[in-house]
Design a protein that fits this description.
Number of strands: 6
CATH architecture: Roll
Strand order of the largest sheet: 2-1-6
Order of helices and strands: EEEEHEE
Distance between the termini: 5 Å
Largest sheet: 3 strands, antiparallel
Number of domains: 1
Structural class: mainly beta
Number of helices: 1
Strand content: 35-45%
Radius of gyration: 11 Å
CATH class: Mainly Beta
Helix content: under 10%
């Protein structure tokens, strides 16, 4: 997916209310395709990281679905 905002809120988990940081505009990959709480998906930086375990090693964080655009 393509993140189209200059700075996209990145959350540490699916229920966090404040962002842990921000991701720059660019291409990221949905880790496992599962929508988590609050309409967030886990994202990762490389296609080959998708679905690998342990998730904590490969998941960059959680991003709200309204930040995505098809690449």
């Amino acid at each position: 997916v393509q993140l189209y905002k200059e700075k996209t809120q990145l959350f540490a988990n699916e229920s966090a209310t404040t962002p842990a940081g921000y991701l720059p505009k660019g291409t990221y990959y949905i880790y496992d395709g599962k929508c988590c709480r609050n309409g967030r998906y886990r994202v990762t930086t490389k296609a080959e990281y998708c679905g690998k375990t342990p998730a904590g090693k490969y998941v960059t964080g959680y991003v709200s679905v309204d930040n995505f655009r098809e690449a």
